[in-house]
Amino acid sequence: MTTLADPPVTPPAHPEKPPHRRARRSRAGRTNHAGKLTYAILAVAVLVSAFPFYWTVVAASRSNADLAQVPPSLLPGPHLLRNFEAVLEEADIGKALLNSFIVSGSITLGTVLCCTLAGFAFAKLRFRGRGALLAITVGTMMIPPQLGVIPLFMLIAELQWVNQLQAVILPGLVSAFGVFFMRQYLVQSLPDELIEAARVDGASTARIFWSIVVPVARPGMSVLGLLTFMAAWNDFFWPIVALSSSEPTVQVALRQLGGGYVHDQSVIMAGTLLGTLPVLLVFGFLGRQIVGGIMQGAVKG
Amino acid sequence: MSPYAYIAPFFTLFAAFGLFPLIYTAFVSLYRVELQTPGDMEWRGLDNYTVLFTDEFFWISLRNTFTIGVISTVPQLVMALGLAHLLNYRLRARTFLRTAMLLPYATSVAAATLVFAQLFGRDFGLINYVAGLVGIGPVDWQTGTVASQIAVSTIVVWRWTGYNALIYLAGMQSIPQELYEAAEMDGASKWRQFFHVTLPGLRPTIVFTVIVSTIGATQLFGEPLLFEGSISGGISHQYQTLGLYMYEQGWGFFHLGRAAAIAWVMFLLIVVLVGVNALLAYRRSRKEAVR
Questions:
Q1: Which residue of A79, B2, B95, B170 could cross-link A295, Cys pair, CB 3.0 to 4.6 Å?
Q2: pTM of the shown model
Q3: Among residues B42, B23, B45, B35, which one has the least CA distance to residue B247?
Q4: Which residues of A touch B112 (CB under 8 A)?
Q5: Cβ pairs bridging A and B (under 8 Å)
Q6: By the CB < 8 Å criterion, does A255 face chain B?
Q7: What kind of fold does domain B3-290 have according to CATH?
Q8: pLDDT one-digit tens code per residue, A131-168
Q9: Domain ranges for chain B
Q10: A150 and B171 in contact by Cβ < 8 A?
Q11: How many domains are there within chain A?
Q12: Do A49 and B104 touch (CB under 8 A)?
């Protein structure tokens, strides 16, 4: 996952406005500076966004008796470590975290590789059936995979993969969105001349892929990787169907916590906190790229 | 290497784990299949569907899916539009604000639902405490039909409003500045500019978000499952959605065939809803073109 550590992405379709437009804007006399009211409303929105996270910390660091008090305590308490210990014991969050890292990491690497390969072929190679295959890929992008879970479960049962991590990893590699995203990225950022020049020099397509396409595609690949990692970490329906509490991912463990086996609210919140922390860390460090990726995907989609 | 070698890894996985399950669902829905013995399939024709349409809980969950869909999607998209408009001003701490708005999107359904279930607690939940301060309540967010559906929808609204705001913001930034300048010269107020320049310019984006939210709402599952942790969506199925009903039939009552029939009904529902959305958008844009 070294690609994730790359410097900030400046994709071609980045929505920031070029500076000259600002100058023109102010000449036209538009006062587009935000007023106090704008900041106030946005501050409220930020508070609403962030409050549940704060509350998770508060509830996870208190005892269950504290949570059953009126008025409720709004500041973190001293019991965070004790609640962590309890949840590690009761719901095996440790194993769940490890499994989630294995599953999400494999899905991310595999998806980025498959989608870059296919995206490159759709963007730059000519072959029979290209249009039709791309149409099928894009056409199924909107169909929720949840609707196919029953045959998928029968398939996994046939292969005797139930409760094994590959049952979650392999179906997780299918990303029609990823193929489309990488295709669009390469259409925009990889000039045909570069490929033709390499061909004239006698490079094979495989050589071109590894030494020209991948370096050019890297910023797109890391955005796709980030989005894929978050989606894989947070995936809920299929993992709870395919896995059980003896081989859980984080979401399976959280489902178990919420299913009434654990009655201690503060322990449940401690589990929620542990299960959310990894994505929050990714988001804290690379949030800008994720925001950019989503806005970019919106413009292209 | 042949060009097909590049698409082969994706299409092999896509065929096995994407396309095949989707199509095969229709086939499975015509059989009796038990969860413990998925290999034994017994032909039943349309029985799964007849049983479905005579089951009271199917209709309840269909209605719940619709009402929760409306209560969660409409406020979500309207607020997202407003936030996007504000985020489009020249702001200090722009990156921070955008990232903060997207924070809920990074949270899993399970985590968000567990936290909100706590906040919505009847006796010691923070929301009832605050409502009590202004003289409301205490509301029973679990048992009441309307209250529980509002609570479940709140989780959806919280998770997706910021995401949609950023999508709208991206759309707003691709509207040519010249249009605003022209409107300004014609003396249009900010308010009129929003309605006559921003909204028409955003139409494709709005159609996109409406379709995506509709699809999401139709298959809503994790929020109602974890709100109280019961697969029936509350004591009297008061907030059971189609997605949860499918899970209950398949993994609660072991009827995979019947669950497949529900999946197929959901698929048709999505096709119809998306079709209606697309048609409305198409007709409106034609009308405006004529005008």
A1: B170
A2: 0.90
A3: B35
A4: 52
A5: 301
A6: yes
A7: MetI-like fold (1.10.3720)
A8: 999 999 998 888 888 889 999 999 999 999 999 999 99
A9: 3-290
A10: no
A11: 1
A12: yes
